[in-house]
Write a structure and sequence with these properties.
By secondary structure, the chain is mainly alpha-helical. The protein is built from 3 helices and no strands. Helix 1 runs antiparallel to helix 2. The termini are far apart.
């Protein structure tokens, strides 16, 4: 049962990260690309890390549990640091005057 749960977590995380890549490639400007990257990187990396931690904790040996706790700490760090970094990059872009994309009006 744990193998199925870890496979679902890791596969879902990889799928979310793939959607982020698609968003980065398809969206029109810096701000929307950063939004796609920031949201999907946080969720995808945390899902993959939790899947790895759960898979590693199967044996219930002390050292394996310790490694799983370390992986969970990394997941929490990613969950906090990634949105913070994305926000800082966005604020820097605003300060530098990066213009957001606007849809061109027809006939002009």
């Amino acid at each position: 049962m744990i193998n199925i749960l870890t496979a679902v977590l890791i596969a879902t995380g990889i799928l979310v990260l793939a959607f982020g890549v698609i968003g980065i490639l398809r969206l029109p400007d810096f701000y929307t690309r950063m939004h796609a990257a920031g949201k999907t990187d946080s969720l995808g990396a945390v899902l993959v890390a939790v899947g790895f931690a759960l898979y590693n904790a199967q044996s219930l040996a002390f050292l394996d549990l310790l490694v799983s706790v370390k992986i969970l700490f990394i997941a929490v760090f990613i969950f906090v640091a990634s949105p913070t970094a994305t926000h800082a990059i966005m604020q820097t872009a605003i300060a530098l005057g990066v213009e957001p994309w606007r849809k061109k009006e027809e006939g002009k």
